[in-house]
């Protein structure tokens, strides 16, 4: 026998398909307790009320979204939930959406508005402000692109030295220490070419006057 409180349903028969289950938050459907067919079992449709309430609502054939407390189909004793003896209507289970998706039911059958000030929302706002800054200052984006390209060039160059090759004509792969020494030597050579050594000044070249003997 199904008294509306248990989560298990009896065998799937036409007579058992309309029985409530799991403390009247669901209805038996094909032998299981379905939480979304409460109104369908009464030849109505599920609907959400914009009001701040956790009372289940059903849309009648007239297209009106009514509370189950105002519908005669849910006044049977099997639809009376624990702690609600003498109170008509069926309450939604905790964590269900309410207030047309803008709220959530708690364990006390209270519809609480959903707050959007969580960590995810704050991170989204930070990302949005960062993106707006990039759009307003396009030169920042250009610098970022240049830096990324430079890093890619360095990584590719480094991998070309450190990656072994099966081609005998190519030089052997170098270790990290060898690559470091090679890079430092290259930087020293480049700096020495650009900066002249101190203490050494090229003396001016004196022009020799040609004598008459040399002209002859």
Automatic annotation (TrEMBL):
InterPro entries: ADAM_Metalloproteinase. The chain crosses the membrane at residues 138-162. The keyword Transmembrane applies. One of its GO terms (cellular component) is plasma membrane. Keywords: Membrane, Transmembrane, Transmembrane helix. Residues 164-216 are annotated as: Disordered. This is Uncharacterized protein.
């Amino acid at each position: 026998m199904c008294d509306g409180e248990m989560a298990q349903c009896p065998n799937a028969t036409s007579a058992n398909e309309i029985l409530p289950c799991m403390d009247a938050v669901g209805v038996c459907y094909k032998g299981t307790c379905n939480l979304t067919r409460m109104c369908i079992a009464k030849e109505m449709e599920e609907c959400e009320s914009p009001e701040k309430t956790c009372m289940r609502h059903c849309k009648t054939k007239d297209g009106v979204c009514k509370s189950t407390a105002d519908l005669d189909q849910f006044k049977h004793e099997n639809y009376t939930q624990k702690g609600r003896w003498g109170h008509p209507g069926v309450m939604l289970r905790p964590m269900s959406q309410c207030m047309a998706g803008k709220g959530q039911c708690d364990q006390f059958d209270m519809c609480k508005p959903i707050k959007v000030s969580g960590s995810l929302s704050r991170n989204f706002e930070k990302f949005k402000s960062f993106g707006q800054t990039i759009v307003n200052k396009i030169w920042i984006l250009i610098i970022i692109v240049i830096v990324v390209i430079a890093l890619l060039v360095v990584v590719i160059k480094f991998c070309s030295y450190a990656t072994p090759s099966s081609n005998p004509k190519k030089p052997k792969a170098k270790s990290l220490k060898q690559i470091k020494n090679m890079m430092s030597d290259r930087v020293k050579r480049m700096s020495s070419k650009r900066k002249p050594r101190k203490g050494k000044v090229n003396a001016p070249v004196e022009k020799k006057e040609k004598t008459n003997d040399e002209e002859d």
